[in-house]
Design goal:
By secondary structure, this protein is mainly alpha-helical. About 45% of the residues lie in helices and about 5% in strands. The chain has a three-stranded antiparallel β-sheet. Strand 1 and strand 2 form a beta hairpin. The longest helix has 17 residues.
Length: about 190
């Protein structure tokens, strides 16, 4: 089956994604992997050779683009402002740390250390680029001279919002408590 222009209707990368779904479903149901059959492997390989395509790269987000995204968030109203502060932290940590999407979404407050002089130290752990977790897993984000583009400043703002919103009589220790305790120990 071909598209009107004579090219296949699906890119090989799309076919590979769908085959991955078939593999997953079959293995979860207790069946053998049908995509490992020599005929399927040769068909995909032949399609790749017959219709080579260069992947289309997306334009990267630059500092000004990220700043526009963050400015578009509602930072002044409650509770949207707290969510905007949280999202700002996630965006700046991912952007300033040059993280893969999976690394950025896998971050938790326990991965962060706040330092008064150095900024934020992030312990990434296993990543797409280091699946065996053998490389150093530390990323340091320094303070920026502009608070609007400073990742450590964004972390401190969000933590202060969360700290201010906590009930005074609560007894449960949270990730924010542990982060603040580590910061206080570092400062003393």
């Amino acid at each position: 089956m071909t598209a009107p222009a004579g090219s296949p209707p699906y890119a090989v990368s799309t076919i590979r994604q769908r085959l991955a779904g078939i593999v997953d479903r079959h293995l979860r149901e207790g069946h053998l992997d049908p995509t490992g059959h020599l005929g399927v492997v040769n068909l995909v390989r032949g399609s790749q050779k017959q219709h080579p395509r260069r992947p289309t790269r997306k334009k990267p987000l630059l500092l000004d683009d990220v700043a526009k995204i963050i400015r578009a968030m509602d930072h002044r109203a409650f509770p949207a402002g707290v969510a905007a502060a949280r999202d700002t932290v996630a965006i700046w940590l991912g952007f300033a740390g040059a993280m893969h999407r999976s690394e950025a979404t896998g971050l938790a407050l326990d991965n962060l250390e706040l330092h008064s002089q150095d900024g934020v130290v992030i312990h990434v752990g296993r990543s797409k680029a280091d699946q065996e977790n053998v490389l150093p897993d530390v990323v340091v984000l320094l303070y920026d001279h502009r608070p609007s583009t400073c990742a450590p400043c964004a972390v401190l703002r969000w933590v202060s919002f969360v700290k201010a919103a906590r009930p005074a009589n609560r007894t449960r220790v949270t990730d924010v408590d542990r982060l603040l305790t580590r910061q206080e120990q570092e400062l003393s």
